[in-house]
Amino acid sequence: MIEIPEQELRLGDLEADETYRVAVLPSPTTSESTTTDAGPQPEQASQTPPIEKGEQRTVEIEDIGDQGDGITRVERGFVVIVPDTKQSERVTIEITDVRENVAFAEVVDRVRYYE
Fold first, then answer.
1. Could you give the 3-state DSSP secondary structure of residue 43?
2. Could you tell me which residue ranges the TRAM domain spans (predicted)?
3. Which helix (H) or strand (E) holds 96?
4. Nearest CA to 13 among 86, 68, 75, 69?
5. SS3 (DSSP) at 57
6. What strand order describes the sheet that includes 56-60?
């Protein structure tokens, strides 16, 4: 049994009191990684952003960047920058631009925290 952080429940991707299946994958030990071939690792080479242009999500703004824009994170800690938002604000956003390691979005709706 794995306890889910409360923040993940607030983001709306998971529901309280629901059952989810997860995979636990082994990682190679130091001695195992030295015995593998030296070829490229496909997992690292093929990482694509976990979000697409035009996608809408309801998120919580986690932080404010140096230029005053809101910052939230989605799967794998992928950063989404949302202008005109405040820290801890809950908003529905639409992704307007996706780059290799960051995405940009606009606010579609401001959501009351407990909706």
1. helix
2. 50-109
3. strand 90-98
4. 75
5. strand
6. 56-60, 90-98, 102-110, 79-82, 70-73, 63-64
70 close to 90: Cβ distance less than 8 angstroms: no
| Placement of tokens 């995979």 in the chain | 23
What is the reported pLDDT for 112? 80
79 forms beta bridges with 73, 102
Q: Phi and psi at residue 90, in whole multiples of 5°?
A: -105, 125
Q: What are phi and psi of 81, to 5 degrees?
A: -100, 130
User: Per-residue pLDDT for 95 more than 70?
Assistant: yes
| 38-42, 86-90, 97-101, 102-106, range with the lowest pLDDT | 38-42
pTM confidence score: 0.59
Q: Is residue 83 a contact partner of residue 73, using CB atoms and an 8 Å limit?
A: no
Q: How far apart are the first and last CA of the chain?
A: 28
Residue 3, CA distances (Å) to 6, 13, 26 in order: 9, 15, 20
The pLDDT of residue 85 is: 95
The pair of structure tokens assigned to 26 is 């082994």
